[in-house]
Amino acid sequence: MSFLSATLDRVKPSPTIAVTTLAGELRAQGRDVIGLGAGEPDFDTPEHIREAAKAAIDAGKTRYTPVDGIPELKAAIRDKFLRDNDLDYPVADITVGTGGKQVLYNALVATLNPGDEVIIPAPYWVSYPDMVKLAGGEPVIVEGGLDAGYRITPEQLEAAITPRTKWLIFNSPSNPTGAGYDEAALRALTDVLERHPHVWVLTDDMYEHIAFPGFEFRTPAQVAPALKDRTLTVNGVSKAYAMTGWRIGYAGGPSELIKAMRKVQSQSTSNPCSVSQWAAVAALNGPQDYIPMSRDVFLRRRDLVVAGLNAAEGVTCPVPDGAFYVYPSIAGCIGKTTPAGKKIENDEDFATALLEDTGVAVVFGAAFGLSPNFRVSYATSDEVLEDACRRIQSFCAGLK
């Protein structure tokens, strides 16, 4: 009889964390490594947010708080939803967790029974399928390929829904592709969902504020108010305010679901960090000028990386709508051989050889459910990105 839970056999460690860890280890060994795996802004948290955290410490706000958030933070989140998304959630219908990841996980644990299905468009954030499995559910993967702009169609969504479907997990702009659904595309999907009242929507809006010109962000419950009573609208401060390590995510949703998620959290982590909560209040209520400034930097980096990768032989890199990732296809590289004689059979082979030969660490596409691709996070300096693109171009040119 195994000591470890059989549930762990259904899941794997996060590949993105593994790539970042490996890059750090190689760098510590003296290798010249460029890590493009981490999904976090490289900017400092804005000063007024840091000052709010210091003030909270000095004021002794370092003790336990209510399980899923202080009233001041929930009020700030309520105001944010109303201000940015035209969504009116009572404070009682808002929950705060230790990062958006916990909020998503709480929702799945609170709702899934064995055999329940969760539709996940691919490419997907690596954690979605494994969180579903840990919660006892079954991921149903629907592929949105390069030709479709990495988006799924209403017809694909309709075909994937069964009587066992409980959730659709929706992420726009997307990690890993940066692809977004404009209002018309989103409306087409919500029209399908309105015809299936047993299907709930778990929307991950973490990249809401990193949306580039030509794309206007919308969230499902905003476009289709009829879905609000079966939608959990998830967001957080990590990407918008460079607060990844502060670990604050939040959501608004139906009362029954929020109560169930609160119960899960009460028996797992209890409250998020008290100091981080006060910092998040300052982020949401304070000056918002950081957001457009950081977005402009990401836009410049996006254009730099797209041009650099499209100059590499065998690589096709579409232009993302938002976030800070690109997801190029390497279909033109598959089947080729490195100068050392290693054949590139798949995107994992490509990423491994790229790291070994050039020191550039990327995440292979199979981790995100669609191959042959790789993901680059361009949340680093222009100089580093230019160097990385040159190395990738040289690597691809050397394949035969």
Describe the model.
The chain is 39% helix and 12% strand. Helix 7 links the parallel strand 5 and strand 6. The chain is globular.
Question: What topology does this entry show?
Answer:
Elements: H1 15-28, E1 34-35, H2 47-58, H3 71-85, E2 94-97, H4 100-111, E3 117-122, H5 127-134, E4 138-143, H6 154-160, E5 165-171, H7 183-194, E6 200-204, H8 220-223, E7 231-236, E8 249-252, H9 255-266, H10 274-285, H11 290-310, E9 325-326, H12 347-358, E10 360-361, E11 363-364, E12 374-377, H13 382-397
Parallel strand pairs: 1-10, 3-4, 3-5, 5-6, 6-7
Antiparallel strand pairs: 2-8, 7-8, 9-12, 11-12
Which tags fit this structure?
400 residues; alpha/beta; Aspartate Aminotransferase, domain 1; Aspartate Aminotransferase, domain 2; 7-stranded mixed beta sheet; 3-stranded antiparallel beta sheet; 12 strands
